[in-house]
Amino acid sequence: MILTGCRILNFYRRKHSFNFLLIKRRTAVFALALLLVTSALVTSTTLCLLSIPKKVYTVVIDAGHGGIDGGGIGIRSNTTEAEINLSIALKLKVYLEALGNINPILTRTNADGLYETDATNKKTSDLKARKAIITTASPDAVISIHCNQFPNRTRRGALTFYNSNSDMGINLAQSVQTFLNKLNQIHLETTYLAAGGDYYILNCTNYPSVLVECGFLSNVQDDKLLNDASYQTELAKAITLGVTSFFNST
């Protein structure tokens, strides 16, 4: 008969008259039984942990504009916003993929727009195509990459916008802005708050979505930074940290 740990202990308490050798033998039996039970529990726990699948997140990365719609133009560089957006989006895809549990999906992978070539209104056709990609992906987050332009040429810095009716979108935007502000602090010596924005890409679905204005092409310093591959990489890293921080908090 195999005694449980509690019975062995009770047995020891009742048998005070047993000699030292007998107690030593029974202690050895108890230690062996405890070791086997502990080993079984550890093995069982390990197997349970291994059997839990790692959560995989889907993120749609939307490089704004493309094709006949170049978006803004750099005040000094004359580079189109569409080119910069795509370059940052491709870098962001690399960083998100490197995490191992994020599946990034690009709305566009080249310079072309997403509109039907025979569409009467190519802008509308393009936006609907982006919505279709997002809807099909059923993502955990949507990141739309853009560059800003403003009449006041002193305005600069990276800003994040959200749909004011989406609590998750607000949280995502605030998380991304937190890390973009680290770059803003370095290059502008100032920070910004994420803001509500009435943009199609934010309103077309209910998935947590943000629109990131990576800088102002109408500002000389920002125009230079936005055309710098290393700065584009820093932007991609900051957005990646913001996205992962958002997922960790939810």
Explained architecture:
- The protein has 250 residues and is of the alpha/beta class.
- The protein has two domains: 5-51; 57-249, Zn-dependent exopeptidases (Aminopeptidase).
- Helix content is 52%, strand content 14%.
- It is built from eight helices and six strands, in the order ααβαβαββαβαβαα.
- It has helices at 5-14, 20-51, 81-98, 122-137, 167-187, 200-203, 220-226, 229-249, and strands spanning 57-63, 102-106, 141-148, 159-162, 195-196, 209-216.
- The chain has a six-stranded mixed β-sheet with strand order 2-1-3-6-4-5, sandwiched between helices.
- Helix 5 (167-187) links the parallel strand 4 and strand 5.
- Helix 3 crosses helix 8 (229-249) and helix 5 runs antiparallel to helix 8 (229-249).
- It starts with a helix and ends with a helix.
- Residues 1-53 have low confidence and may be disordered.
